[in-house]
Model the fold of this input.
Amino acid sequence: MTSWIDDEAEALEAAVAPLSARAAAARPAPYLDGLNPDQRAAVETLDGPVLILAGAGTGKTRALTTRIAHLLHTGRARPNQILAVTFTNKAARDMRSRVGSLVGGVVEGMPWLGTFHALSVRILRRHAELVGLKSNFTILDTDDQVRLIRQIVQAHRIDEKRWPPRLLAGLIDGWKNRALTPARVPASESSAYDHRGAELYAEYQDRLRTLNACDFGDLLLHVLRILQGHPDVLAQYQRWFRYILVDEYQDTNVAQYLWLRLLAASHRNICVVGDDDQSIYGWRGAEVGNILRFEKDFPGTAVVRLERNYRSTAHILAAASALIAANEHRLGKTLWTETPGGEKVRLIGHWDGEEEARWIGEEIEALGRGTRGLDPVRPDGIAILVRASHQMRAFEDRFLTIGLPYRVIGGPRFYERQEIRDAMAYFRVAVSPDDGLAFERIVNVPKRGIGDKALQEINRTARASGVSLLDAAGLLVANGGLPPRAHAALGQLVDGFDRWHAAVRDGHDHLELAEAILEESGYTDMWRAEKSPDAQGRLDNLKELVKALGEFENLQGFLEHVSLVMENETDEGAEKVSVMTLHAAKGLEFPAVFLPGWEDGLFPSQRSMDASGIKGLEEERRLAYVGITRAERLCTVSFAANRRVYNQWQSQLPSRFVDELPAAHVEVLTPPGLYGGGFVAAAPGRSTLADTVAKADVYNSPGWKRMQARAGERPVSPPREAREMVIDATASAAFEAGTRVFHQKFGYGTVADVEGDKLAIDFEKAGRKNVVARFVTAADAVPF
DNA sequence: GTCTGCGAGGTTTTT
DNA sequence: CCTCGCAGAC
Done:
């Protein structure tokens, strides 16, 4: 089990010996060609702390990978002396392959290039005993974590309704992100769970140790503890890792920051790359403060700013820059580009969310044909970026209707599906019979008549005899004491695991074994017998799972991989439009980007603002910035006046971000296109973008009518509604408190308050709502 | 121990 | 509205 670890240690120690004087400066470095001066500085400033502030699209990854190539080329470090940290497996893979192509594949591997978590596992396996674990500890996924916490909460007789386990799991995660041990949890945050939050946390840690398991946060924290408590170990790693590079530094949390600071403390050869304007993971513990503070933490830092953008046109860049300028706490960058003008950012308002989806569908088809003087944009060059995943449905529905190929990125992930987790739990017990959590998961899946009662009995026996759950189950079967049905079923299961574990030990072909486990346990039969429509899909997934096993040498290797790599298979290369959340879009780029749903409350999200106030709003604004800067040539922002939320119509106000877009770089479109002139005069003294969009007379245009005729199959917003909107807009100045009004979706009501064109109205049926004046008519004007 | 009906709640997500 | 999780009936 530990052999590779020892080999590696040897290799690393050997590597510490002075490098041969293999001519650094003398040899040419072709990879430097084509870098701009800033990028060169980022690559060539090798010693001491370096902070690379890399705006969107400025060649950040290129700088980082070239820097690694340069370290290798100049002989500053061998591949295994570079610690390169990323956040996602995808980023790690990208970096690996790009370094490979830069140095011509001469360099064998880079063992210490990976995610914080993967690297931590590597370190932790070597020193597990220092934190009371065995080196074959298991890594819990969120599911296991919550189940374990539920047990603890139940044991304390705490009301699960009031204090859901999931909430505590979230709190514990938050504490771990901040590197807080149970003893250090501030009293003020422990008030939940009857002031026993920290106590429950401590108990959870005890349980983990007993189970020889870690959750994700522990991977980092245990390594921290080891490095802090064992100077000799720390010194060893500091010697091994001569150069440290960190990608997406703005996303690091406190624990990760401490982790890095320890490892970099001696030589301080740490280079971090990031963009404070793209920090969008505050809600899961990322500390923008880390990057804002870097220069203070590492005095003498060389700061390199990458400000030349190679991705977007000038208008897109200007719009993004103006928007993000509204944020207060920034390091500040001035992005520039030599790509001239191009299309302005397009802005369009719609009647409702369905029309928005319909319009975007048509735009995509138009883009495919080549429109507005642009070269045709193929589907895979187009992305729709939404704030929240529920927004994706409208697009999926629409695209299915018109037969537009699309893919959703970031849906439920393969390894998080129930059937996959169940199967994996079987594998886990077969590999490590001690894995109690996995055993509990599948002991009654498929139904074996082993319910709470029997499980309690197993648990009691396990505790009494100090053995694992599986062994306890074996004891119970041997000694009797269970109802006949449970007895027989459990006996069969225990026998099964005996067999399967033996097969693992004997090195049986793991593909065959996996299939046998799923068959003999009755697991696949369970799904075959299931009548529900998705049962077949689940069986297919299981086949897929077994196939994926083929890429690994054995079950252990596979399980280890999956515990750290929970990502989806991406069918890349397909000619499909991408639909994803803004979060998922970070790091990607597309010729054409659609940003729908820019409405207050949806984006910026009300919940973010409620939870974190101005800080939350600023993070939302960064999200908007990330969205716009994904676009290379065409960026289209849209919002709808009405949206169905939980099947209730809700009137929406345009996002404040719409008004923050600079008018000079924005073109206001008239939906659905064509030549309907906006005849509603702009109200004097007001000229925000949102107003401009509202005033364009959309619905009286010939284009609109033609569109409706064409749409045929399904009635779109009735023209009368639309015409009324226009009438309303004209009359909007006239509303005053007390006016009786009518709204298409909410019915009759009375104006309670007027603020500009925004009205607070008490509706008779729907209660108090905030509505833009143009969506409302004076009650007597309704033609009934 | 398993099945059915009722009520609550319903951002973002990687490892 | 639709999904999930829990409590009560078989």
Residues 460 and 472 of chain A are 9 Å apart (CA to CA). The longest helix of chain A spans residues 606-628. Chain A has a mean pLDDT of 81.
